[in-house]
Amino acid sequence: MVAANFPASLALVLQSEGGNDDDPQDHGGRTSRGITQREYDAWRTGQGLPTQDVWTASQDDIETIYHDNYWEPYCDEMPIGLDYVYFNNCVLAGPRRATILLQQALGVTADGTVGPITLAAVASRDPASAIRAYSAAATAWYHSLNQPRFTKGWLNRVAFVENNALSMVSPALAFASPPAKKGMITMNAQQSQALVRWLIATFGPIVIAHGYATSSQLEMWGGALASLIPLVWGIFAHTDTNAVAVVDQLAKNPDSPVQAIIVNNTPAGHDLAMKMPGNTTVVDGSAEEQIRVLRSGAGKTR
Question: b/e map of 42-64 (b: 16 or more CB within 10 Å)?
Answer without folding.
Answer: ebbeeeeeeeeebeebeeebbbe
